[in-house]
Amino acid sequence: MNEMQRKLSGKVALITGASAGIGHACARVLAAEGAQLVLTARRRERLEALAAEVRASGSEATIVTGDAREEDTARNTIDAARNAFGRLDILINNTGVGNYKNLVDTSAAEYDEMMDVNVRSTFLFTRYAVPLMLSQGSGIILMISSMAGIYGFGGEAVYCMTKFAQVGFAQALDKELRPSGIKVGVICPGGVKTEFALGKGRTEERVAQSEMLDAEDVASAVLLACTQSAKSRIIQIQLRTMAESLA
Fold it and tell me: How far apart are CA 51 and CA 38, in angstroms?
């Protein structure tokens, strides 16, 4: 594709949880449109393989290995974007964990894990990205939430709590940051066939045989939110499978 035709040429995108699933699919889609990528996750070998794929497609990529729950990881990843590319145009808060259990079967430790992975990581990366975007007067921040952040589902109360938190965070930041030229939105897919879908409480067979969305479906929605005109913004996208029950 001609560089002038690529929708994200010259843009820099940071993706958390980039080593698999939705994050991995987003990296491929954004790179195909010319974005330069900053990729972070815990599994270095997977990040290196993805970065090599991105470079082979004609885009640039830098990686930071670390736990998204740790403040140093967020700080170091934003610094990597600044040092490698001098700017940050897009932040995809994708890191997450699922735990699908009834309330009485959910321990305090499992609650802490979900809150830290799904909510704390979103806060940390956004907290460190925003000053750079404010200095530029522009930027796009997207939270990968869930339909569980829109509706409550039985057997998923604590998971829903974390995903509702991401939606509320995005809505508040839209009002706080829009006057400074920063767009904030949330992507809310239904179930997606990824490692994440297994979480705790589902089986590989159940996920494989389901009619869930593919990671690429979500990545396409992310691309749409990243390529809007300067005068418009997408504040929420909900994605559901065509196979969803009508009941």
Answer: 9
List pLDDT tens digits, range 85-101. 999 999 999 999 998 99
* CA distances, 170 to each of 40, 129, 166, 222, 227 (Å): 21, 14, 6, 15, 18
pLDDT in tens, 107-154: 999 999 999 999 999 999 999 999 999 999 999 999 999 999 999 999
Please report the beta strands in 168-228, taking only residues with DSSP state E, as ranges in sequence order. 182-189
Question: CA–CA separation, 53 vs 60, rounded Å?
Answer: 10
Report how far Cα 161 is from the mean position of its chain's Cα atoms: 17
Q: What is the rounded distance in angstroms from the CA atom of residue 217 to the CA atom of residue 219?
A: 5
Question: Are the C-beta atoms of residues 122 and 133 closer than 8 Å to each other?
Answer: no
Question: Residue 122 and residue 165: Cα distance in Å, rounded?
Answer: 10
What is d(CA 221, CA 177) in angstroms, rounded to the nearest whole number? Answer: 22
Does residue 151 have an active-site annotation?
Answer: no
Instruction: Specify burial of residue 73 (Cβ count, 10 A radius: 0-12, 13-18, 19+).
Output: buried
Confidence band of 210 (pLDDT split at 50, 70, 90): low
**48 φ/ψ angles, rounded to the nearest 5 degrees:** -65, -40
Round to whole Å and give the CA distance between 147 and 190. Answer: 5
Could you tell me which residues are beta bridge partners of residue 16?
Answer: 40
- Does residue 195 surpass a pLDDT of 70? no
Catalytic residue, chosen from 100, 128, 151, 159, is 159
